[in-house]
Amino acid sequence: MERNSGKFHMIDITQKNDVFREAIAVGRIRVKPETVRMIRDTRVEKGDPLSAAEIASVMAAKSTSQLIPLCHPIPVTSVTTLSKLGEDWIEVEASVKTTAKTGVEMEALVAATTYLLTIWDMVKRHEKDEMGQYPTTAIEWIRVKSKTKGA
């Protein structure tokens, strides 16, 4: 029998018990103040960026193991997002829950990141400068805010 090369391997979680787990990830996108006003006033031509981002974050959380090598596929039982709009930013808090053998931090991070990327895609027309660049648009501060195991 040949041995694994040792370079990469999925962690064996076979013997672990299924446990309730939740992770909350947060992140922020900086945009022009006018872009935030357009979102608030539902004037973005592509549609409502926050609603589209919410759907995209659910789809992304459920697809995490297909995006990140060696990430275990888990049964995602809940994905919720809360957004907050500032003068020149939109912040998201993405919560992902499961009952599984491993945590959902990666799913929460992917959900939050995809939420912000979806907003960027929907408002990019308004964020570009005269050269077609994005001098002020930035995704930042993506992190795991909290995680829970058991309960």
Descriptive notes:
The protein is α+β, with helices and mostly antiparallel strands and 151 residues long. The chain has one domain: Alpha-Beta Plaits. Helices cover 32% and strands 30% of the residues. It has a 4-stranded antiparallel β-sheet, with helices on one face. A hairpin with a 3-residue loop joins β2 and β3. 32% of the residues are buried. The model has no long low-confidence stretch (mean pLDDT 95).
Give me the secondary-structure topology.
Layout: E1 19-30, H1 33-40, H2 49-62, H3 64-67, E2 76-85, E3 89-100, H4 105-127, E4 138-149
Antiparallel strand pairs: 1-3, 1-4, 2-3
Keywords for this structure?
151 residues; alpha+beta; Alpha-Beta Plaits; four-stranded antiparallel beta sheet; 30% strand
The first-level CATH class is given as Alpha Beta
Which percent band covers the strand fraction?
25-35%
Q: Could you give the order of strands across the largest sheet?
A: 2-3-1-4
Overall tally of domains: 1
Q: Which regions are unreliable across 5 or more consecutive residues at pLDDT < 50?
A: none
Q: For this structure, what is the CATH homologous superfamily?
A: Molybdopterin cofactor biosynthesis C (MoaC) domain
Q: What is the alpha-carbon Rg in Å?
A: 18 Å
CATH architecture: 2-Layer Sandwich
How many beta-strand runs? Answer: 4
Average of per-residue pLDDT values: 95
Q: Total number of helical segments?
A: 4
Shape: elongated
- What percentage of residues falls in helices of 4 or more residues? 25-40%
Q: Structural class, judged by helices and strands?
A: alpha+beta
Encode the helix/strand succession as letters.
EHHHEEHE
CATH domain topology: Alpha-Beta Plaits
Instruction: Give the termini separation.
Output: 43 Å
